[in-house]
Amino acid sequence: YKATGEQLDAALKDQMLTKSVRFRGDTRKTNKSYMARTPTVEGNRKTWTWSCWVKRGKLGVTQGIMGSAQGTSTSYFDTVYFDTNDKLYCRFRIPGSGDKMYRVTTRTFRDPSAWYHFVFQYDTDGKADSADNFKMYVNNELITSYATTYGTLTTDWESFWNGLYTQVMGRRSYTPAGTYLDGYITEVNSVDGQALLPSDFGKIGDSGEWVPKKYTGTYGTNGFYLEGKDSADLGKDTSGNGNNFTNENA
User: Fold this and answer.
1) What is the sign, positive or negative, of the torsion defined by CA atoms of 233, 234, 239, 241?
2) Residues 214-224: tens digit of each pLDDT
3) Which of 9, 96, 184, 236 is the most exposed place for a label (fewest CB within 10 A)?
4) pLDDT tens-digit profile of 46-101?
5) Do 224 and 239 touch, CB atoms closer than 8 A?
6) CA geometry: angle at 150 spanning 145 and 154, to 5°?
7) Nearest-5° angle of CA 163, CA 70, CA 130?
8) Cis peptide leading into 176, omega within 30 of 0?
9) Helix %, strand %, coil % for the chain, to 5?
10) Measured distance CA(106)–CA(162) in Å, rounded
C-alpha cells in the first residue's frame, strides 16, 4: 500500500480529496495486499450501505472490491468484484445450498483513468423476496441491466456483512488467490443499519459531473469511514467508531 499525494481527477479535486489507498494486486508480490477487519460485536445484517470511489489499475482479471466470509470457505460469503470481462459481479453464497443470489452487470468498467463511485445497498428487513433487495449504483445511477441474474434475497435474509465474520477490502472475500484489486480506493463509508442513496455521499458538481461530498449521518455499530489520509495507518477508521482495518501483506 501507499497513500498517494497525487491529485485525483477533476471530480475529486472539487472536494479537495488528495489521498487514496493504492492496492497492488499484480504479479510483483507473492502475497497480495488487502485490508481486513473482524467485528467483535454483531451489527445489523439485514440493512447496510457501502460507498467508495475506485480507480482501476489493471483490467481483464478478477479483482475484489469488498466482502465478508466465514473463514476462507468458498461456500459461505458475500462479495462484490470485477470479473475477467471487467463487469461488476455481486454474489451471495450460503451453507449447503450454493448461491443464494448473484448478478453480473451488462456494463463494463474499462477506463483506468476514471474514478467510479460505487454504492452497494443491502436491505432485506421486512422486504418481500426480491433481487432488488441488493442494489448497485455507479456515479449516481442505479444499475438495472444485467447480463446474468440468479436467485433472490428473501425477507429478513441476513448477510455475512456486519456479522462476526472477517470483512475485507481490496480482495474478494474468499479464496482462492488471484482476486486482489490493482487500483486505488478512497472515501470508504460503510453504514450499519441504514439503506442509503448515492446522494448521501455525492452530489452534482458545477460542471454537471458527479463529485464526492462528506457523509454527515451516523454509522451504526460496525460502520466505518476510511479516508486513507494517514500513511502510517491507512486502515484508520475516522467515523468515531474506532473500527480500524489491518493492512494484510502490506
Assistant:
1) negative
2) 999 999 999 99
3) 96
4) 999 999 999 998 899 888 888 887 765 555 577 888 999 999 999 887 766 667 88
5) yes
6) 105
7) 65
8) yes
9) 5, 40, 55
10) 29
Cell 469488498: give the residue. Answer: 66
Rounded-to-integer distance, Cα 50 and Cα 190, Å: 4
CB 82 within 8 A of CB 54: no
**DSSP code at position 8:** -
Nearest to 64 by CA among 120, 8, 143: 120
pLDDT of residue 62: 87
Q: Which residue has the cell 454527515?
A: 216
Look at residue 163 in the predicted model and tell me its pLDDT: 93
Angstrom CA distances, 86 to 72, 82, 83, 111, 123, stand at 24, 5, 5, 10, 26
Q: Which of 130, 118, 142, 119 minimizes the C-alpha distance to 195? A: 119
Q: Say if CB 90 and CB 120 are below 8 A apart.
A: yes
What DSSP state is assigned to residue 177? S
